[in-house]
Design goal:
Rossmann fold; binds guanosine-5'-monophosphate; transferase; HGPRT; magnesium; PRTase-like; hypoxanthine phosphoribosyltransferase activity
Length: about 190
């Protein structure tokens, strides 16, 4: 049989960390929890571009509440070495969040810089409540404390791709989350 493009990029992955089925299980679990926790409320679901778009698309279908969705794009300049903590908004919301209940949807919480900044931004805009859902978290990398309300899976400090998450804009269309083989970086 002819090898597809997805088959060929899947071969760059040395280890599958979270399978398609495990992702779906996390989506269902978090969707149910959010539905219970925000019962009777109208939710604003905010996806952080680009990595969270796949998780966001699945998660909203598992949340049984009235909602609006929007997206933000941010870039973080803080690293463990520079740790400037600077986060810049590249694309802002097009709807207002004042007085609303907000769920921020992220792919990975790593140092926590992005989400600690975004939580402050939401609070400064007068939201009623802000909660965070992330597919993955790397607790060992945390530099800023972040209250993450809904977590898909905890992962080790490894660079992951797939299910919306990229390396050099590639691998977003893999249906699972995995770790790239080292030779891909060393190319
Ligand atoms: P933080 O501000 O928490 O350090 O940054 C989180 C962001 O870093 C994620 O949304 C993601 O864009 C990026 N990131 C962290 N770990 C990984 C990883 O393993 N793979 C990829 N592709 N991006 C990552």
């Amino acid at each position: 049989m002819e090898k597809t493009h997805v088959d060929s990029i899947a071969q760059d992955v040395g280890e599958v960390l979270i399978s398609k089925e495990e992702i779906q299980a996390a989506v269902e679990r978090i969707g149910k929890q959010v539905t219970e926790d925000f019962k009777g409320e109208h939710l604003i679901v905010i996806g952080i571009l680009k990595g969270a778009f796949a998780f966001m698309a699945d998660l909203i279908q598992a949340i049984d509440l009235p909602m609006e969705i929007d997206f933000m794009d941010v870039s973080s300049y803080g690293t463990s070495t520079t740790s400037s903590g600077e986060v810049r908004i590249l694309k802002d919301l097009s709807i207002t969040v004042e007085g609303k209940s907000v769920l921020i949807v992220e792919d990975i919480v790593d140092t926590g810089l992005t989400l600690s900044y975004l939580t402050k931004v939401m609070e400064s805009r007068g939201v009623k409540k802000v909660a965070i859902a992330t597919l993955l978290t790397k607790p060992s990398r945390r530099e800023r404390a972040v209250d993450v309300d809904y977590i898909g899976y905890e992962v080790e400090d490894k660079f992951v791709v797939g299910y919306g998450i990229d390396y050099a804009e590639e691998y977003r269309n893999l249906p699972f989350v995995g770790v790239l083989k080292p030779e891909i970086y060393e190319k």
